[in-house]
Amino acid sequence: MSVFTADDPVPVIEPHGDVDPHAVQKLLVEGADVGTVLTLASSMPDGWAGAGRTVDAIDTVPDGCVDGVIAIDRVTAVPVRPLLGEIARVLRVGGWARLVQADPARAVVSPVLHDLTVAERREIDGALFASFPHHRGPLARELIWSARGVGLLPTRLHLGFGRRVVSVGDVEGYLCGAPADGVAGPLDRIIAAADVGLADRYAEAWERATAAGPVTVWTPGLYLAVERVADTAVPQVRAAGRRGSGSAASIRNVFTAAEWPILTALEAHGTQWDGLRTGRWAAPW
Fold it and tell me: In 10 A of CB 15, how many CB atoms?
């Protein structure tokens, strides 16, 4: 079953797009000074005039009374679909929402922290991911399909990576800083899910790595623009491919016209993430 319909248009896709709120500021705030626009963010970057009225709790907003919603990193530590459902609820039909969302659960440290054993690294990765129990996989895919399922039609998609360079003097700020509202810093997450000893080993590995030079942290992210449509999508029964057929055409026929390019872009993004994680791909910027 698919939440996309056969009539859904293909969104504009930037597979190597900007995903930083500052970089996509123009896209986020375009038209935000017209009509009733809400902003869901703990704080807006400096200089964002006309970016809508900030609200702390969207569940207090009446149904169908909003023309636009801007949301920045709002589903890092909460279930995706309920929040998107609230955004769909408050939007008028034809209204829009624009979301910028990082996926810190899948942040990649490059180069690898060589002082850690494979077992330690595996335990640390598990401890860091444990802070995101609501997310079952890459956040981008969950956001896109959940949005369509509640009546938010994707119109534009940027996939990319946020980049943070950590030098020897920045280690404490990175390890103790919260990547988003409701999410503790890496050391506190390791302590909560494992123990202080493992957190100390992680901090020591960072200190040694940055002593040799800056360490880059790559965080997957996306910019997603959607339009509120009249109804949620009617699930489409996927066409059954011919048994034993593995051709690209037969696989493609299983998906709607809108889904296929989205899936292709997500696959390329995932390949880049895996390449960063394993060192097989060097980011060009």
Answer: 16
End-to-end CA distance of the chain: 39
pLDDT at 241 over 50: no
Is residue 94 situated within a structural domain?
Answer: yes
- 108-110 and 215-228 beta bridge pairing: antiparallel
Rounded Cα–Cα distance for residues 91 and 37 (Å): 9
Strand 91-102 with 66-72, pairing: parallel
Helix (H) or strand (E) run with residue 216 in it: strand 215-228
pLDDT, one tens digit per residue, over 107-149 is 988 766 778 888 998 899 888 888 787 766 789 999 999 999 9
Q: Which domain holds residue 184?
A: 12-240+250-278
Distance CA 229, CA 70 (A): 17
The answer to whether residue 5 sits within a structural domain is no
Q: Is residue 202 part of a domain?
A: yes
- 88 vs 152: CA distance, rounded Å: 6
In the block, residue with structure tokens 């996309």: 4
pTM: 0.86
Q: Where are the beta strands (DSSP E) in 28-151?
A: 37-40, 53-54, 66-72, 91-102, 108-110
Domain count of the chain?
A: 1
The b-or-e profile of 190-222 (16+ CB within 10 A means b, else e) is bbebbeeebbebbbebbeebbeeeebebbbbbb
Say what angle helices 196-211 and 118-129 make with each other, to 10 degrees.
110
CB 53 within 8 A of CB 39: yes
Q: Which tokens is 11 given?
A: 């969104």
Whichever domain contains 54, its CATH number is 3.40.50
